[in-house]
UniProtKB/TrEMBL annotation:
GO terms for molecular function: transcription elongation factor activity. InterPro entries: EAF_fam, Tscrpt_elong_fac_Eaf_N. This is EAF2 factor. One of its GO terms (biological process) is transcription elongation by RNA polymerase II. PANTHER family: ELL-ASSOCIATED FACTOR 2 (PTHR15970:SF7), ELL-ASSOCIATED FACTOR EAF (PTHR15970). Residues 16-112 form the Transcription elongation factor Eaf N-terminal domain. The gene is Eaf2_1.
Length: 112
């Protein structure tokens, strides 16, 4: 791709495919995460951890930039199911448009 993002809203008709999440026994799931605050100290080049515990409680731990105190940022919250929401995934390289059902919404807040 040359860096230019094609417009989804051009007058061209597109094929919309229903993704695997619409199958009777889906082999994949899609989730959203909503947080109240993202500190500038989070190291965007490192991986974090997501843990779902008892009662749908969720903990997200993200590493901070080297030398930061504390060394990690911890978010805690809960997971709730989506009933009718979907996400549209567009592959700008191929032009494919795929609709997937969202499984759950994870809402977390930074612990202090």
């Amino acid at each position: 791709m040359n860096g230019a993002v094609p417009s989804l809203y051009d007058p061209k008709a597109r094929v919309l495919k229903l993704g695997e999440s619409f199958e009777k026994q889906p082999r994949c799931a899609f989730h959203t995460v909503r947080y109240d605050f993202k500190p500038a100290s989070i190291d965007m080049s490192c991986e974090g951890d997501l843990e779902v515990g008892k009662g749908e409680q969720v903990t997200i731990t993200l590493p901070n930039i080297e030398g930061s105190t504390p060394p990690v940022t911890v978010f805690k919250g809960s997971k709730k199911p989506y009933l009718k929401e979907c996400i549209l995934i567009i592959n700008h390289d191929t032009g494919e448009c795929r609709l997937e059902k969202l499984s759950s919404n994870i809402t977390v807040k930074k612990t202090r």
